[in-house]
Amino acid sequence: MTGTITAGVDGTAPALAAVDWAADEAERRGARLRLVHAWTWRPVDVTHGVDRRVEEDWVRRTLAEAEARVRASHPGLDVTAEVLDGDPVPSLVAETGRSGTLVLGSRGHGTLTGYLLGSVSLHVLRQAEGPVVMVRAGDRPEALPAPAEVVAGVQEPGAGSDAVLDFAFSAAAARGVPLRAVHVWNLPASVGWSPASLYAADQSSALEEVSKGVLTDILKPWRDAYPQVEVVEHCEFGSASEILLSLGGSAHLLAVGRRGRGEGVRRLGSVTHAVLHHATAPVAVVPHD
């Protein structure tokens, strides 16, 4: 993480929760905090009774109130506030290339997936060049039961796991809490139809041992780099989204990956979608190649 954390401000309760979380994180890491609101004037129907000056005054007042909130709760923090001239999605995506982390508010969780996160957040998450943390109102560390931990979803060896673990180990070290590294495994797809399916099922314990070995190997360089972080290796058979959600309820932070950093197709996988819409903890989405 670089020396700047950026939080998006829009005057809503989730955005204020994001500001609070970002301020806590900046103080914890000795980083600068940047509060931003992306806005561009578009003339509206006169029947709405809103002109440019009124709207711009609201934007600047909202930012000023968020800045005052941070200065009151974190008096020693280096905090600035800025109106970004442009549409929200490209402006916030650009911020992910400048800051160590972008923090946004999430409207919550429930069964109406696809509507609760917000279209701006979804577009930013799909295009972000760096980690984006989604925070719901009420997601504050002091509300967590002890002991709390950072939970990270670990895939196969490679850039994806490295990016997520880099973020997760750093977050755990800054908080002085354990890191739970979660690797979910399943039987090969052929088990459902192959004549040898019963034999493969009988060998599932062997597959579990292989998966545990993979996780141990992935974590070794990170254990060496962060010897102060207690690591819990969690290898389990089942649904990745269900397992991560079950573990995330008592977490400081839940970190997952997103394929497609840089050029090419950028998308949120089904596990990341599920975690974003249903997790009760703040969720960090870390892009990787």
TrEMBL record:
InterPro entries: Rossmann-like_a/b/a_fold (IPR014729), Universal_stress_UspA (IPR006015), UspA (IPR006016). Residues 1-136, 160-287 form the UspA domain. It holds the Pfam family Usp. SUPFAM superfamilies: Adenine nucleotide alpha hydrolases-like. PANTHER family: STRESS RESPONSE PROTEIN NHAX, UNIVERSAL STRESS PROTEIN UP12. Belongs to the universal stress protein A family. This is Universal stress protein.
